[in-house]
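Open question from group meeting: does this chain pack into something compact, or does most of it stay loose? Before anyone orders reagents, we agreed to write out a predicted structure and look at it together. Recording both the input and the output here so the notebook holds the full record.
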Amino acid sequence: MGVSGVSGVASTVTVVANHSTNTLGMQLFYLGTFLAGLLLGVYVMIRGVERVGVRGRSLELDALGRPVGTARMALTAPTIGAFATILGITGYLLWRYSTLPTGLQLALGFGAALLGTMLATRLVAHWATQAATQDVVDERYLLQGHPAQVVKPIAPTQPGEIAYVVGGTRYATPAQSLDGTAVAAGTEVVIDRLEEGVAYVEPWVQVEQRL
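Structure tokens returned:
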């Protein structure tokens, strides 16, 4: 074999090696993108959409007057997670089962990810809006589980009074014990419900025993 033959073989080996390295790199890229999307999706499911205000405070209040702030992640994290997951799946399938050039694989992968993310976002937004409009809130239980303190003793047949704080504002309301027993002033209680202007409460020590 002459010098030119050796050079040709060396060139072929170099091209094959570069091609193998490139395809391995794309495989790792697609798999890594897919895994990152899944992990981000799991994080969102666990943490949910957190709401925080400026320096822990917010001008936005919920139905109880509690500060809820603005959505920290909004749809950003779920959107990025969906985009990465679809890109990883599409890119890997194209890499594995097609002979398309790398650039075209990426273009198709990004296109599919963009389209899939837009469709998923619209579906989730539609579902959330529909669920919110159909959800009927029982206002009696809006304060269920909220801590309070008895400021006027509760008698078995006579309402007392509790005080509680919501959104930095102190409120007072007539109260009865949930089981009809007397509750002394100063007792820490938990609100079960508010009905016709009267709060039905249970001493915290009783709740704590069940936990």
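Observations to bring back to the group:
The chain has four helices and seven strands.
The longest strand covers residues 169-177.
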